[in-house]
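[job 0412] stage=fold_complex status=start
inputs:
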Amino acid sequence: MQVDFSVMYDDVCHEIGVPAVLIVDASTVNLTVIDDTRPKVLPAGSGEVHDVGPGAYARIAELTANNVTRDEYLDAVLEFNGRTWVVRSYELRGSPNGEDQGWVRLLLKEPAVGR
Amino acid sequence: VIDVREEILARLLEVVATIPNIKTAVRNNVDLTREHLPAAVVFDGDEETSGSVDLSHSPDTVMRIEMTPEVVIVQQADEVGSDITTLRRELIKRVLYDATLIAIVNAGRGGNGAIRYIGCETDVGWMRSLHGALRAQFIFKYMLKPGDL
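[job 0412] stage=fold_complex status=done
writing structure:
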């Protein structure tokens, strides 16, 4: 039986996704993302610094449907769950139906302030 | 009681606390959060006697000690590289030329102690913003008089 994984991804997004706004240049796109902000620890000599690594999963098909191409991911502004982030990089997660039907994990950072 | 090692470490903490823009100066704290940053952490580090220990001498014999405390500078910022470089510069200047530290190890003119900067290592990574840590190591040479402890 041929499985359409995009349907499963849509179900996942429906259950645990949150509304988000992606701002690319002057264009605003409404979409659903899954908050992937996780605890993160980085070394500081003999010690460690504890914080979070902000991230979000988005469906590439939804981005494409909103005319957001891959080269526009970087530096886009993403607002969700009451916070505003900037896409600093991304990771394509692939899919059995091809990468264009899969997730993209957007790696986020805080907007620069006063620089 | 005169404990030169403790005097050095306590003074080192005071010195790093004077680095401009440092928000937190602590000693041996291994768990920092974003709210601490920019931070300077003094780690006690190791020490060893310089040269071989002569077992034929009394345990009270004065020994030359070389201790190597570490100072870790941590910051998160878009321009973390420049920030860390600036903090490193201030750190080295303040440690090497601090009159109190020089007096503690007797590194002044004609003294037998010394303070030197050995070098540094850096770590970078991403959190909410770019994270950078710089581990600077110094060597303090002083004379340990066991009878003073």
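[job 0412] summary: The radius of gyration of chain B is 17 Å.
[job 0412] exit 0
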